[in-house]
Amino acid sequence: MAPFIDYSGSETHIRINPSVTSIPDRAFRRNHILVEVELPDSIRSIGIAAFSGCSSLKKIHLSEGLHTINHGAFENCSSLSQVIIPSSVSSIGNGAFSKCSSLKEARMHEGLHTIGVRAFRRCISLTRVSIPSTVIDIGKSAFCVCSLLKEACMHEGLRNIGEEAFWKCISLTRVTIPSTVNDFGRLAFYGCISLKEAHLCEGLCEIGEEAFSGCDSLLRINIPSTVVVNQNPFRQCYLLRNVFISHLSSSRDKSFLFMEECPIELLKRRFDLPIEMLKRRFDDLPLHELCYCHSQKPMESMNRWT
User: Fold this and answer.
1) Radius of gyration in angstroms for the set of CA atoms belonging to the chain, rounded to a whole number
2) Which of 147, 153, 192, 249 has its CA 20 to 30 A from that of 33?
């Protein structure tokens, strides 16, 4: 079958002929009529920007046999609500599903190796994502500004979390970094304002610069013995109070532990934080709570020197 480029038909539902083995670059780009596409098992790759800007596209059926989803393949498909990535797909290209604002579910299967740069950027309806254990690399800004993302499950086998990977995922509440991750980039979890707890597994080598900056609800984090901490990864984490550091761990800048300790009343004045929010620092810590209730001065001393 001859290649088709810039398809401009008026059909809302399309089933691709089984003789076709790839969807060419920009084949259906900016087709605002298309609602549903069914791809046969013969399809091996979806080209660059093949369906980008298809604003009415609600359903795309991806079959086993598909290997590659190229850069920007479904970018700006603002009506797409679900995508199921077959196990035969090894890589999701850069920006493949970027700005799919209605995407609520992105189901990925074992067999996937790489999630590209900005792959799911600004998927503002996405609430949960589970990264298969076969994935070794999450690209830069892969899930940035996924503002409803509450849960990101990462499994053993993952090696790299790119810069700004979860930048401003403002609904994310908890994260566990697997032991197979060597390092994660700068600003990886920047501005995750609902993040309360981060668990870093033994084996992690490096925490990127300002990796958790602006996580102003962060209460608990552990620093494994294998970790080297870069320049102030916890800038503006004003509520951070439970930092467990292995005695074997090293750091290029240990001042991050104390440089932003502030008395409660000063924090309240400087950052206009509600006093009840600040008191959360003492949840489940009876001794610290007692110090706060009776005298702020002893509490400050304990925070600074204990």
Assistant:
1) 23
2) 147
